[in-house]
Fold this protein.
Amino acid sequence: MNELGLTPQDVRAARALIQWSQAELAKVADVSVSTIADFEKGLRTPIPNNLIAIRRAFESAGVQFTPAGPTIFSELSLHIMTQAGVTEMRFRYALDGAAAVQQIIATFGSAEGDGVELEPVQTASPTLKAAIDALIQQHGSAVPPLNKLKKIISSLGDNEYFLLLPEYPATTVEKLRLERYLHSLNHPEDQSADERIDDLFGLLLERYNISSPRTDQRTLIGAERDPRTCRFCGRTAAGGATFKKAAHVIPTALGNDHLKSAEECDECNGYFGCETEPSLIAMLDLQRVFLGTQGRGKNDGRPKLRFGEDILLHDGERVNIQSKSVIKDASDTFVVNLGRGAPLTPSSVYRALVKMVVSVVDEEELPHLKETIEWVRHGTHSERPLPKVASSVIPLPLNPSAQITIYTRRHSHPHLPHIVGEFRLGCYIYVFAVPFSDQDQWDLVGFFDEASFQETFKHYFQAAKWMQQDLSRQDKVVMSPRLKFVRRSS
């Protein structure tokens, strides 16, 4: 058996489930028909990349490989919006489990025949909570998401309103509208909330479109585009490009295994993985450890870092520091002077940040970013000045997975960047302007201090203290971090 656990019998059975011929499978997987035929006959095992392509072809058609063999699953996704945020509920089931899922969904609406009509406005009534308890008794072992559903509903006060949405809000504006509506349902006496929101975000929403691709579920940018075209070199398969490797928009070392791009060829993917992304990861080494960010590899993917002879790691529960240079002063403060860390190139950090934006920005903006893409992919235009990157620590829940938000200017403005990126890893946030757009008539140096920027992005300046970093250097630097631990006052 190969390392993916895919057998010739699995492939034959999966083809039979969805009634594919060998030629149809070969076309979708982008492999030769002889590769499929020889594997099914047991004559040879395809190379790993082809095995991955075969498996993904089946999975894209709804086939899942289980210990009992290939199976077709259905999936129903609902989004529950409470005052704490939006949570997705995904009910994945085989065909023989459809009745149980329908009964669960009918709790939030009315069932008629094989269909269910959902009510978007819900209340966490004692009756609803009791019904969910009863469903767990009946279907809890077969439908594990029920326990997650109970946790969400139980956290709400009796008769507190929540919204049931068929999909995640498509835009930030739509999400904000729904949040305001939910707030008005639960707090009809509070008329000032709308005024506060308008004051904080009104100008931003007027001047910028905002997008933030999902990183909590599988999201593939450009999946519908045919032919597949690399955003960074412009080549297609007909032009010699290949698209067999998984192209992560955000490096897996930063906790992302869901957000991927179908518009990044293998050659460009390899370049970023060797030339720019390692510097971004190195700059965030300490943050990754303190957050317990999970990538891939040993220690459940959590980083184990060496700084000279010193070691810093997260064991899944706490941070462990092994260092010979620990100083404790009279005020019970500990200072740890770590050795030399991994080398990084500051300009490569900036290029890696902008690469994420280029990967997900609306396709209509790409013609304006030709020089930006040349800089990201080849390092050209390096003699031109770069704006600084602003960073801060914000009081948000310590989500260890990375997120990217893109602000795209709606209309021309002499003092606002065409595109602003926001990269967040847990409570650590980085705000940067995308340089070299032909929609900007200046070099963007000092954009963060511009009065127009501060009045537009007012939410950035409410509670955070910002530090601006110059990431224009093109030579390698090595950091030797100094950690200071102060005992909390009781």
Notes: The chain has three domains: 8-67, 74-175, 191-490. The longest strand covers residues 69-82. DSSP finds 15 helices and 23 strands in the chain.
